[in-house]
Structures are given as structure tokens and as C-alpha cells.
Amino acid sequence: MGQPVNFENVGWQTAQGHRLVFASLALVGAACYGTFMLTRTLVVLIYLWFVWCLLYRVLSFVGQVVPRIRKYIAIFNIGETERDVELDLHDPASLLPGPPFESNAELTGRDLWMRESSPTVAAAGIVKATLRPHASLLLLVSEK
Amino acid sequence: MDCVFGGNYYGPRSGKLEMDQFATSIRKASSKSVLLSLSPGGGGPGGSAAGVNAMAEVGTAFVGEAGAANGMQVMARMTGDFWDGWAQLYDHFTVTAPVAARYTSNIGLGSFYPDLDMLPIGWVAHVPKHSGGQTIYGRYADFNLDESQSLLAQWAMARAPLMWGGQPTQDKVNATTMGLIGNPEVLAVGQSSCGNRQTKFSANISYWAAEAVGGTRHATISLCICVCVCECVY
Which one of A2, A3, A78 has the shortest CB-CB distance to B206? Predict the structure, then answer.
């Protein structure tokens, strides 16, 4: 199963998007006015420019479709004393299910009880918390 | 979906005859998706790994035998009755839930849901209780907020069915109860995760992890739009 896609960098307002829009306008303009106003070479160049922009755009989109890795993490203190706990999300010894997080990926942890996201919760891939007796931490950690 | 319920299904009563009867009922079910719910009753396994394993095996046996290929959903109780005491919840952390999660993640046919019993949250009792010369008519659960959150998080991470065992009338449901049982992000954990398991248990700290899964619906729709735009341009 896939993951939700980050669409933040695939909007038309990006530089790639602008290039594709300009290329499209040039292509439509060339098509409308015919080759009698433009040389065949110029039309071919405009066409190639459009194709290149479109390919660039599609490849960028496909790159965004690559799923972000997300994992639920829960840490429970079932003892009778307050404890500082720590979990290294990059350490293979942590035995997290599924594919590992990218080693250089920025991770964001969302506290599901507080319903707040914070990049510091999983800073440098390490979850740290101080848990009261019988308390727990429930996080959704995802690559940003 | 058809439902087949089996009560007191643990120990000497869980003989082959009863298993055959369940299998027959499932074969006769009118739909392809069958919910088989097995309960051990009051005499079910307590905090022993062997008891929990036995109960899980009873449930998962049906997945292999009686039509898991038809998408049968099996929900088997892993424990005896669960109430709002920390000692019982402690047993769940140390024995029950780890075993239950192991079965959940290992089952390849159909689906298996480890039933850890209902969630004793909010107003949980009607029966008058005599204590210290006083009679108490009903009460809220003995769990504090930390314990209640740990309880729900444990059930969610183990992919146990979330069944609220409290009184739902307006005069008994307070904001704390609603905040616990009505948190959509916590409720979603059990429904959108796989590979759930306890990854480490050390010095009374229990670490759990699961892979979060979602849909590609938005990506698919966008891709379709992208293709349509391309076709129009050409």
C-alpha cells in the first residue's frame, strides 16, 4: 500500500510549472499563427522545449509519488517511577517494521494525543521523552 | 456479513465437535465475509503466555480450515474479562498484547483480530458495591488519564477491536471520556497499520512500532488529471 503524497512542491507556481506554461503558450501560439510567421526550425525548437518541460514536469511528479515512510511508535512506562526514554529510529536494532527511514531524511513526529506535529519530537531520528509512571507516548513519525 | 459467535470457548469445552459445528456454520453463511467471534468466557486465559497462545490458536485454526480464502474475519478473545485495574493492564503489556500482535502480523490468510476485551473507560458500573461500610452506586473507571491513554494506545497498537465498555448516556459521558474514545487519530492507528509488534521490552519500558499505511487515491486522481491534460494538449 502506498502513502499519502506530498504535493507541496508540485504546484504550477513552481519554476518548472512556469516553464511548462510558457512553453505551452509558445506552442499554441506557433500552432495558431502557422509556420508562415515562424521558421520551421523555430517551431521545432518550441516543440522540443515544450516536450522537455513536460517530461521534466512528469518526472518531478513521479518523484513526488514515491511514498514517504511513516511509522506509528508507542512507548509505555509500565513501571512505578518516572523514566527518561529514548528510541533511535535509524538504528536497525530498534527492529521497526517496514522499510527504514532515509538516513538523511528530516523526520516529524505527531503526538496523537496532543494532536500536534513537531520536528523536534524526532530530531535527528531519535525520539526522547520523559514518561510518568503508567504513562505512554503515541507518535506518528513521518519523513518530511 | 454473517456473524458467528462462540462463547465459553476455551479449555475442555473447546473440543473438535464444537470446532466442526463452527466450521459448518461458516460454510452455510450467506456471505463471503464472515465474522467469527470466539470468547473464552470468565474462565479464559489470564496472564499466562501459554493460555493466550492456546486461545489464539483456536481462533487462527479457523482461518486456515474453514474458509479464510473467502475473506473471513476472525476475532478471538485473548484474555478473560478485563476490568479497570492496573494489575490487569500490566498483564496485557507483558503477556497478552505481544502474543496477540505476533499472531496478527503473522497471519497471511484472512484477517485475525486479537480481542483484548472491552475498554473500561468512563462510567463503567451500575451494580451497587459495598466498600468500607458504604454502598457505591456505580462509578467512573479507576484509571487515571495516563493509564487510560496507555490502555487505548495499547489496544490500538495491537490492532485489537475497540469496543467501549462504558455507559454512553449524556449524563455520564464527560469531556475526558470523549477526548479518549473520540480521538480519530488514535482510532485510526489500528485501522491503518501493519506489522504491529512490540519491538523491545526492557526494565518496564515497552516499545511498540507499526508501519503506517494509507491510500494512493489522491495521487491516482492527480495522475489521471495529468494524463487527461496531456491528451488534451496533444
Answer: A78
